[in-house]
Write a structure and sequence with these properties.
Helix content: 10-25%
Number of helices: 2
Strand order of the largest sheet: 1-7-6-5-4-3-2
Strand content: 35-45%
Radius of gyration: 17 Å
Structural class: alpha+beta
Shape: elongated
CATH superfamily: START domain
Number of domains: 1
Length: 175
C-alpha cells in the first residue's frame, strides 16, 4: 500500500543561493546523522555560467555508517540524483534507499524553483513515499510510523536549510 508525505516551503532567498546551499548541505554539524556520513560522488557534469556553478546532473550515494541492528544491515545507503536547469531556475532531485529493499521501498522527489509569489524567493516542494513489505499484517502499522519519521525528517531538513542559508547568505529577503 504505502504512505506519502508532502512538504511545501518557501525560502526567502534567491534560487541560486538556495541551490548552492543545498549542494553544500552534506555533511553538516546540525544534523546528528551527518556525523556518520561518507559521501561518494558518482557522476558530475559541471559548467560555469554567469558566475553560477551549474550542476547539470549529479548522482550522490550517501552511506550512513550508523549500524541499524534491527534491520541486520551494517549501514544505510541512499542514492540521490539532481538535475539543475539554471535557465528555467529549477532543480529536480530524486532519492531512494538502496538498503533494506527487501523490507521497504523509500523514494523522495523534490523540486526547488523560483517562487511565483516573489521571483527573489525559492519554493521547495517535496513528496516522500514509503512502502513496507515482508512484515505481513504489521505493514500498515510500520508505514504509519514511517510516515511520522518522514514528516519529521522533512521538517528537520527545512530547518537545517534555513539555518545554512542564514549562515551562508545572511538574513532572508523582505517581501
Amino acid at each position: 500500500m504505502g504512505v506519502s508525505v508532502d512538504v511545501h516551503q518557501v525560502y526567502k532567498y534567491p534560487f541560486e543561493q538556495v541551490v548552492a546551499s543545498f549542494l553544500r548541505k552534506y555533511p553538516n554539524p546540525m544534523d546528528k546523522i551527518t556525523h556518520f556520513l561518507n559521501l561518494f560522488l558518482i557522476t558530475v557534469v559541471v559548467t560555469l555560467t554567469n558566475c553560477f556553478l551549474s550542476l547539470k546532473k549529479s548522482t550522490l550515494v550517501i552511506l550512513c555508517w550508523k549500524k541499524v541492528s534491527i534491520l541486520k544491515v551494517p549501514n544505510i545507503q541512499l542514492e540521490e540524483e539532481s538535475w539543475l536547469n539554471p535557465r528555467e531556475r529549477n532543480m529536480a532531485i530524486r532519492s531512494h534507499c538502496l538498503t533494506w529493499t527487501q523490507y521497504a521501498s523509500m523514494k523522495e522527489e523534490s523540486v526547488f524553483r523560483e517562487s511565483m509569489e516573489n521571483p527573489n524567493w525559492t519554493e521547495f516542494i517535496q513528496r516522500g513515499r514509503i512502502s513496507i513489505t515482508g512484515a505481513g499484517f504489521l505493514n500498515c502499522i510500520l508505514e504509519t510510523f514511517a510516515s511520522t519519521f518522514l514528516r519529521q525528517g522533512a521538517q528537520k531538513g527545512i530547518r537545517i536549510m534555513e539555518m545554512l542559508l542564514k549562515e551562508q547568505c545572511g538574513a532572508p529577503l523582505a517581501e
